[in-house]
Structures are given as C-alpha cells and as structure tokens.
Known about the structure:
- It contains 15 helices and 2 strands.
- It is an all-alpha fold.
- A two-stranded antiparallel sheet has the order 1-2.
- The protein is flat and about 70 Å long.
Amino acid sequence: MSASTAPHHTKVGPDRPQRSxxxxxxxxxxxxxxxxxxxxxFTIIVTQLPFVATIVISFMNWNSYYPQDRGFGGIDNYxxxxxxxxxREAVVNTVVLTVTVVLISLVLGMLIALLLDxxxxxxxxxxxxxxxxxxxxxxxxxxxxxHALFNPNYGLLNGTxxxxxxxxGSDSAPQVDWLSTAPKIAIEVSLIWQWTPFMMLILLAGLQxxxxxAEEAARMDGASAFQIxxxxxxxxxxxxxxxxxxxxxxxxxxxxxxxxxxxxxxxxTANLPYxxxxxxxxxxxxxxxxxxxxxxxxxxxxxATFALRVVSSMFKQEAGR
Length: 321
C-alpha cells in the first residue's frame, strides 16, 4: 500500500507549488483589474445598452403619431434608408461631403506641413496659429462662417468684393448670397477650414520622423526637389495620409453641427446625421431614425477598423527600426 502511494505523492507534490503560483498570479491580475470594473460597467451601460436598444427599435414600426401601429417591421426601415429618394440623397450627401472634405484637407494639410517643416523665423508662432481653427468649437466655427463670412449684407467675402470693386472705380459690386448660390460648397469650405490643421499636424509629425540621411544622399546624387518628394517624402507619408484620411472620415461622416447651423439641412444639403435628427424630432419615426443611426455606426466602425490597422502597422514599423 505504501509502495503504491509513494509514486502518487511524488507526482502531486511538485504540482502544488505551480498551482498555488498560478492562483496567486490570477488573484494579482484580478486585483489589478478590479478598480477598472466600475468604469467598464459604466461604459457598457452608457454606450452598449443604448446601442442594443437602437438595433431593436430599428426593426420596429414605431412612430409616435401612430402609436396603435407599433410592432415588428423586419428590415423595412433598412430598405427605406436605401430606397427612399430623400434618404438616398442624404446617404449620397454624406459620402460626397466626407470624401470632398477629407481629400481637400489632406492636400492642403500636406502642403502646409511641407512649408512648416522648413526652418524660418517665427515657425513656432505660425504653427500655433495654423492649429487654431481645429481648436474652435464646431458650432462656433459654423456660426463664424455663416455670419462673419457668408452673410450677403455684412459678411467678409462680400465686403472684400466691394473693396476690390471700389479700387476700379465702381460702386455696383455684386452682392452674392453664398448660402443660396452654393450651399454645399459653403458647408464643405467651413469643414475644410477646420480639418486642414488636423491633417497638417499628422503629416507634420510624419515629416519630422523622416530619415534625413536618405534625403541628403539623394541631394548629393543630384536629385531635384520634386524627385525627392515623389520617391522619398511621399512614400514615407503614405501611412500618415491614410491615418489622417481615416480619422477625418470617422468624424466628418457624423458631422451635424455645420449642416444644422449653416443651412439647416435645406437646399439639398441634408446628410444622414441631420436626417436622423429631423426624422426623430419632426417625423417622430423612431424606427426609421434608429435604422439610419445603425447604418452610420456600421460605416464608422468599418472606417475605424481600417484606421486601427494603419496605426498598428505604423507601430510595428517603428518597433522594427
């Protein structure tokens, strides 16, 4: 009996310290994570539960004007998002607004970053002033463009036109109503003004991380400034351009402030976020508004996934250097 139990004790004995060490490690891990549990629970309650409720409501026919007709509607709301002419126009406006603002902001941001990457007197002050538009509250920026620049009576744009006309001896300068003439361009210009500094910051950070020895070697070999930009600078900035574009798209696809403040969604400028607002507070169609909200969230998640991949690949490249 004792001979048969001896091997058993020699087998179990060494495992007990390992088990106790594993239990202690798990306890220590839980001790570190426990303070984060209230924040995690709060985040789930505040963000995930409302989103789950939104998904459920998006499959319902729920209009407060017709409470007796409330019930399960299947995918009717999602079909309406893409087949209804007004909603389809809102989807197209959202895509056009996002693509236009992101592309132009990237181009302008890259040009400004290339200029600010050079050494000159007062470069720090210029950088600070260039960042200022991005720090303005979005609703304040939209009000600034609507009243201080686009107003046909006292706006800066028409005031400038009047001053130029008077230089040539004419007092009958055209008074352009910018918001009625080009409402979509007015919104795009205000957003480009605000998002160009963001793109400039990202690209300037990319330029500052560029290896200087390769550029010096190219100059010694007789490469022109355009060739250096095309074959060295631009390939280095590719991932920073992708990151800026994706991050900008995440926010601009959800833009509500500029559309609401500048045009109130009129003249064919309503995008999906504004249409969601209008559907909830004017039409009181909670099911359709929830479906539009889910579409916007899915589009944002897709864009954010690509952004995270770009950031991850950038970190991997930096770690491999």
